[in-house]
Specification:
By secondary structure, the protein is mainly alpha-helical. It contains 9 helices and 3 strands; from the N terminus they run E-H-H-H-H-H-H-E-H-E-H-H. Helix 1 packs across helix 2 and helix 4 crosses helix 5.
Amino acid sequence: MALVAGQDDLRAQRHLLVPEVAGMLDAADADPGGFEREIARVASAEWLWQVILATAAPVDRARYEGTDLGPAVRAALDDGFRQGAAGYARDLVTALGPWPVRPEELTAPVHLWYGGQDTSTVHSPDLGRSLAARIPGARHTVLDDEGGALLWTRAADVLDALAA
């Protein structure tokens, strides 16, 4: 299994979170249904695109704005929000909620991949170091020259590692 620029167990990393993300955790805990309704009300492809750009590392932003990656991601967002934001809102509540399985209980091989320049506030505050330590036998790769878009920019490397 590969986890690429994946969201960490944010509850376990709370002390490293920016206030906005900690506030999202609090809001989702206090009233999951209300939080979901509010996200569904405000979220759109354009809204999420602006969040991505605002939190992107300079290396990622340059790719989004100067290559075919940006239009491809934007088209994917448009497709994903075509029927509205309810699916995104539900996914966000689930992602912010307690994990149903403790990482320490995983038995499948796991390879975590992070970009050393990743500045996303919702991926992993410590680039997956703590999460990798919690997963028995996990491999942990940090690519120093990458940001949070490495799923798109280094997909071949990830797939090669999975196939090996």
